[in-house]
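Record 1 of the preview.
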Amino acid sequence: MQPGDREWATVIEAICADGSAIPPYIILAGKQHISTWYQYGNLPLDWPIALSDNGWTNNELRLAWLKHFDKYTATRTQGAWRLLIIDGHDSHISQAFQDLCKESKIIALCMPPHASHLL
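->
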């Protein structure tokens, strides 16, 4: 149980096959950043913090995360293409997401919805 005065937050993480990880992408619920959110933390500067109405990802934020992923993995590739294994969230099947994957030479392997904990 929780007291009911909490908001959702989402953290999108990615771990590479070589064991390294890219900086997490944090999504908080809100319309604008509030300075008191950050007064006690020492978050690294390469950890982006985005906002959505409910603290969850959406199509726009998923595209922003894909650009974040591309930035941190483009130089680590051993071949022409990279493989990105993702869950079955609706934002992964948008045309804009698929187009950006193709443009960035990323193969998106999408797991069935609500099955990532099983796989």
